[in-house]
Amino acid sequence: MKGWGRFRTLKERGEWVELVFMAAAASHGYHVLKPSGDSRAYDVAIELGGNLIRVQVKSTTKRANTGYSSQFRRSDGAKKPYTLDEVDFFAVYIVPLSVWYLIPAVVVLRPIRRVAVTLCPLPQEGSRCKYEHYREAWGLLGKTRRDLARASKSRKLQPRSGGMR
């Protein structure tokens, strides 16, 4: 979508990206909830069997060598980092390419907290694309917090095929 550059502020772009995420998640069969206001660490919730999966939505247009750089800092300027008590997933949208990465928060926050990662939707020879299996991994949203915690310990975080059933 070429209109993404028309936003006057990053906040406006962030609000738009949240809407894009909600539409995409709904199209994959998920029940999407939006909290009122900006006081939560997460932007959107996915209702899964009576439980909520909390998603922090990020976007990037910043090209960095072989990929796009995405930061995992709060946009409100607070120095406090995200925690697993607040967020279950980071959904990162690479705006110029219309590509989603659905990364479990445990991957970003443990064992070493990352404040930024490089995502590589355009494969290049010799590049090490550590997060490629999270590209368009909508099936991961169908996992519970318990599934995510258990899988992260065994390093087996694989997406389920498709959306919720």
Any overview of this molecule?
Residues 159-165 have low confidence and may be disordered. The longest helix is centred in the first third of the chain and has 18 residues, at 10-27. The protein has one domain: 3-Layer(aba) Sandwich (Trna Endonuclease, Chain: A, domain 1). The two termini are 30 Å apart. The chain is built from three helices and eight strands. It is an alpha+beta fold and 165 residues long. 20% of the residues lie in helices and 25% in strands. It has a five-stranded mixed beta sheet. A three-stranded antiparallel beta sheet has the order 4-5-8, with no helix packed on it.
Structural topology:
Blueprint: H1 10-27, E1 31-33, E2 44-48, E3 51-60, E4 63-64, E5 67-71, E6 89-94, E7 99-104, H2 105-109, E8 116-119, H3 145-154
Parallel strand pairs: 3-6
Antiparallel strand pairs: 1-2, 2-3, 4-5, 5-8, 6-7
Provide the descriptors you would attach to this structure in a database record.
20% helix, globular, 165 residues, 25% strand, 3-stranded antiparallel β-sheet, Trna Endonuclease, Chain: A, domain 1, single chain, alpha+beta, 5-stranded mixed β-sheet
What's a concise summary of this model?
By secondary structure, this protein is of the alpha+beta class. Helix content is 20%, strand content 25%.
Contiguous helical run count: 3
Q: Structural class, from secondary structure content?
A: alpha+beta
**Distance N terminus to C terminus?**
30 Å
* CATH architecture verdict: 3-Layer(aba) Sandwich
Low-confidence stretches: 159-165
What is the CATH class?
Answer: Alpha Beta
What's the order of the H and E elements? HEEEEEEEHEH
Q: Residue-averaged pLDDT, rounded?
A: 83
Strand content: 15-25%
Helix content: 10-25%
